[in-house]
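FW: tagging you since you asked about this chain on Friday. Here's the raw sequence from the shared folder, copied in full. Didn't touch anything.
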Amino acid sequence: MSTLQGKTLFISGASRGIGKAIAVRAARDGANVVIAAKTAEPHPRLPGTIFSAAEEVEKAGGKALPLVVDIRFEDQIAAAVEKAVATFGGIDILVNNASAISLTGTLQTPMKRYDLMHQINTRGTFACSQACLPHLLKATNPHILNLSPPLNFEEKWFAPHVAYTMAKFGMSLCVLGMAGEFRAQGVAVNALWPRTVIATAAVQNLLGGDATIKGSRTPEIMADAAHVILARPSREHTGQYFIDEDVLRSAGVTDLDKYQSVPGTELIPDFFV
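HL: got it, structure written out here
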């Protein structure tokens, strides 16, 4: 299988960045994409809404269903899943992309920010998975893909920002557990993480601005890697922690320079790898 034609993807946080790039890549195959995100009105520092993302999906050749969803609330998730199934007849793929970040130490992390990261990253991933799984279990090639890092319990990844690391590793622990739980039923549960920093609004606003963007890759590298994973047979690839460039190389992609935000600039490694 090399195409997502006719497949229905439920993507959290797909109004911008990596989530939107995954949506647009799937749309090029003729996929249906549920854009489940909070942004319905333009934000001055966060370009893109569920509606502008839907326009891009449809221009790329897919069908879009933009839905306002705050994944901290399971009733909103349930309503979105119900609408998705009513519109497209089922759900084949869940991409847990929505995430909150605060690279702060223990004394500098307000509990409100701690709660936000855990509610969106870990709890939101679990809640979206729980809501979509009854429909994924009916699909012919079902996948869950969490945008979360390999489980690496070295102190250096915890000490600078323990709250954020715990929240992201919670997503990765969902991969470990759910892959085993649903392996026999054929649902693939995997993680995907970038080798380098990716040029997103979060990077622009929180991680060093233009200087960091110059040393980053575009979201399309994650989108292309996600496409490779999601097109594979679900029963043959589960419980894996994939790195974007490794996935692409395994698929025969040799030119990674095309993904650089500024060609020739030294790339900045991402966290956890």
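FW: The chain is about 45% helix and 10% strand.
HL: agreed, and The longest strand covers residues 32-37.
FW: great, closing this out.
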